[in-house]
Amino acid sequence: MINLPDYIKESNIEYIQHRLKDIASISLKKILNKHYTELGIKYKKDIKNLSFKEQLSIILTGFNTEPVFQLCFYIYDENDFYLGYYQHLTDLDFNYVDEFFVAK
Questions:
Q1: Distance (Å, whole) CA 23 – CA 15
Q2: Tens digit of pLDDT per residue, the chain (104 long)?
Q3: Nearest to 70 by CA among 102, 24, 30
């Protein structure tokens, strides 16, 4: 079992965030190309006008259970109006756990 405080101290958080961002961005792009209308976007080409704010978290899931990384992209239109969010969850080895896409 991984000792989380030691793992955090020995980890390069910037690398973790960059790696998760790469992984999650691919999934989010696929979702947006398919479900852009759920965000109130009329035309697929307008996806390029979206902006994102990201947040990296570590979720402790319970006793004797490995924690997971959560990378959340908050999605905004060109006027900075909040449209929804996308969460990508992985274990500490970057193996897929789950994802959520929520339109406001």
A1: 12
A2: 556 666 666 677 788 889 999 999 999 999 999 999 999 999 999 999 999 999 999 887 766 567 788 999 999 999 999 999 999 999 878 888 899 999 88
A3: 24
